[in-house]
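As described in the Methods, two query proteins were run sequentially through the folding procedure within a single session, without resetting any intermediate state between them. The first query and its resulting structure tokens are shown here.
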Amino acid sequence: MRELNPRHSLAPRHRSAIRTYMGVKWFRLRRYMNWYLSRTVFASTKHDGHFPHLIFRHQTPLLRELRNVDMWMQHNKVVNVSIAAPKINGMVIRPSETFSYWKLIGTTSRLKGYKKGMVLSHGQVVSGVGGGLCQLSNLIYWMTLHTPLTVTERHRHSYDVFPDTNRNQPFGSGATCFYNYMDLQICNESDRLYQLIVYLTDTHLVGEWRSDLPAVHTYEIYEKNHWITQEYWGGYVRHNTIFRKVWNHERELVRDEYVTENHAIMMYEPLLAPMKQEKHIL
């Protein structure tokens, strides 16, 4: 697996509004140039039916009660995901092609029907048009870790905003997104076709990776070396490394490989007494 974001100082930095605005413009321009001038062949073909072989399937609840997050943001997130998901549903990644999350979804504007949803900005929950699409990128990334596909670009969350209530995946197993320069890109370096399926039910966002050929391996994702440090600037940073075990059909371990590392500023005090668990709204 090849990913971006080696560890660097996570000390909060103050930037002026003008510098932030110009920085966003520059990084977006650079992304456009990469999309249209690089030699990368980006996936662009959809298949209406489902490929015959299910490789991995996962689902996440659409609505969750989160501390200090108004539920209208959650409901607007569902609207946003329902607009974005059809743009990538059925997308086929042929050998040597690369899936680009933002190239396929495009801008998230009001004109397209997107609403203000939850956005994390410097560790704070704010509202922004198109907010909540990280749930979709998180789902795709987690599913991809259970396939032979290669993650060539993924951006980790820089802030750990919510305590571990109802977490059933390792910390740091998601992929943040921000149009268009914080992208999720996945390359098919295999000799078979893969198809992405994503759709919404009344209660869940559901995703599948399917293929034209049956799976050769299964995967187990786990974390190592989970620790917390207090930084020189006073905050706490959470760290871990993600690995995965690869098994063949005889349930023999083929390899145990490094996936990525995570470092995130904690937006809550570590070592707090256990809190009452937040309930999923189904």
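Immediately afterward, the second query was submitted; its sequence and tokens are:
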Amino acid sequence: MKKYLIGFGIIFVLGTGFASLNAYRRVVNTSFGPGEHLEYRVHYGFINAAEAVVDVSPTLYKVNERPCYRVNVDGRTVGAFDLVTRIRDTWRSYIDTSAILPQKFYTNLQENNYRKEENITFNHETNTVKAEERTERDIFKVPDNVHDLISGYYFLRTIDFSKLSNGQIIEVPAFYDDTIYNMKVRYRGKDVVKTKQGKVNVLKLNPVLPQNKLFKDEESIRIFVSDDLNKIPVKVEVDLWVGSMVMDLKRNGGLKQPLHFY
């Protein structure tokens, strides 16, 4: 459940030289940059359930000879939820600054007694990914311009939604947990959301979910991103079979432009 809540609310190539440079797409990005900081509160009714922090490092990193943004997503349960289900999860993506594609993806999951730590390296020239710590089935074939969970979200922030019609679907290939996903997000037009800081103009997005036993329907997640240069989630609503959860933006910094509340 938290993978959807934090990953949506809530985001790696080998090769050198000019041939490698020419092999990459170029994506215009005016929405985010180094030093961006976002904090979220996840609540189930009036009960605080979890918190998440999303940070873009203030400095760039070179990975696979490519300049990258380093994006950290840290999620943890709090309060009564922490007594029932203790979660301390970290996702980290190194995102190519010009192609907005992952070069490397790191996960460190601590969920009750479950533990998982893994590094994934992306090779966009050969369309493969490699699980670094494994000795068996460590190479996976992937589609062109494949994303991880974090980089896919940051790529969506580069899209000009004014050119989309209401109901139009954006599709992004992604690789996670040894599986290739066709991430689909439906644009649902514009709206206004009330926050503790005031009202804010937003764009409505619905990740299209496959039928499952956790969410009520394929549009059970509603993401409201700021209708401005930043395009950051200010609110996420999730309908579960056992109730509803909401994620609110609590604090922000380092944005391309200040959020406008009224």
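The helical segments are 2-9, 17-22, 79-84, 149-156. We note this only descriptively and draw no conclusion about the first query from it.
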